Amino acid sequence: MHTFEFERATNSTAAVATAAQAKTAQQGADVRFVAGGTTLLDLMKLNVETPARVVDINRLPLDRIEPTPDGGLKIGATVRNSDLANHPTVQRDYAVLSQAILSGASAQLRNMATTAGNLLQRTRCVYFRDTAMPCNKREPGTGCAAITGANRMLAILGTSEHCIATNPSDMCVAMAALEATIHVQGPTGTRVIPIGEFHLLPGSTPDRETVLEPGDLVTHVTLPPPVAGSNQVYLKLRDRASYEFALASAAVVITVAGGKVTRARIALGGVGTKPWRSPEAEAVLVGQVVDQANFRKAAEAALRDAKPQSENGFKIELAKRCLTHALQMATA
Ligand SMILES: Cc1cc2nc3c(=O)[nH]c(=O)nc-3n(C[C@H](O)[C@H](O)[C@H](O)COP(=O)(O)OP(=O)(O)OC[C@H]3O[C@@H](n4cnc5c(N)ncnc54)[C@H](O)[C@@H]3O)c2cc1C
Ligand code: SF4
User: Which of 30, 66, 73, 328 gets the most CB atoms within 10 Å of its CB?
Assistant: First the structure.
């Protein structure tokens, strides 16, 4: 691993000022915050990330889960994934989030991993993690080894000719269905970003993954008040039962009255270049009778624009079945 300066932040304004000196907050950033370290340190050992300065944010007072005045929930950036998944309010009111987090990684990793770190985790594309291979995300302009290579795990929605990497997060899929908001403190003040606008599609700049700029510190995430009477399910399909990323997953937050769907929020994981909210599936469901045929129609709508690569065409049907089954589970 290369050498770097390490410092512990004791107040967020100073941490932001240090990080604001970076040339970019995206791939190749020369200043990085570190929280749990479970993404960043791996990538530093592989020389995929080579920051000159690493700012430890674990001593900042960002580790609380609190109610918001409007009845929602505020989740600090350094709240550990295990504490969030096991919080009684999350288990009761935002069950899809608890289920999604607990389906990811391992207990040890979840004890270290944080809310903001999970939001900003990087793709598991094998070529991104191998500096001997071409990769537009790691080194813009070098090409994409995955398009003609090992792409079984990679994306079918939101891809471009420059990058087909999957966003690997489970937590973010649940947060997309819950319509979370990301709160950022930057060098010029604070701002709020709906989760749907936080991650970027790869387009011709796959090295840019989020809207963050140099100095931006994610301080917390808020969830809106829980939707009364909603049922929530996170279903994750993968090659083995634990310690594995999703091939396809579905987060469902659905409300039913009189046998008909009155509200639906749907997001997919394992198939998109970003956590994939599906307004198409939601529109198909609302007002319809709760039955298998309508669930399948919603799944068809969600995958209508899917573009398979050489090895991952199976994901289209897998994702449809995943969403159909998640809808059945949520309305049973
Ligand atoms: C073996 C393994 C299996 C895994 N399996 C899964 C899985 O099945 N599902 C899943 O969803 N995830 C999985 N993960 C990923 C894991 O969830 C992430 O590594 C973790 O959530 C990252 O959190 P962290 O706090 O450790 O981040 P760090 O490594 O500390 O940081 C990650 C990135 O976020 C930035 N960052 C951190 N905090 C802030 C902040 N407050 N503001 C701005 N930038 C910030 C850092 O600079 C860095 O770029 C797995 C990881 C491993 C190693
Ligand atoms: S899919 Fe993206 S991350 Fe993977 S090799 Fe291609 S450009 Fe790199």
Answer: 73
C-beta of 120 in contact with ligand 1 (< 6 A): yes
pLDDT, mean of residues 1-14: 93
Residue 33 alpha carbon, nearest atom of ligand 1 = 47
Cα–Cα distance for residue pair 30/123, rounded to 1 Å: 19
Q: Quick one: pLDDT at residue 297?
A: 98
Q: For residue 245, which of 125, 134, 133, 330 has the smallest C-alpha distance? A: 125
**CA of 164: how far to CAs of 168, 192, 198, 248, in Å?**
12, 28, 18, 15
What pTM does this model have?
A: 0.98
Q: Is 38 near ligand 1, meaning CB less than 6 Å away?
A: yes
CA angle 129, 131, 135 (to 5 degrees): 75
Average pLDDT, integer, range 86-99: 98
Q: For position 242, what pLDDT does the model report?
A: 83
Q: For a substitution probing ligand 2, which of 49, 124, 136 has the most ligand atoms within 8 Å of its CB?
A: 136
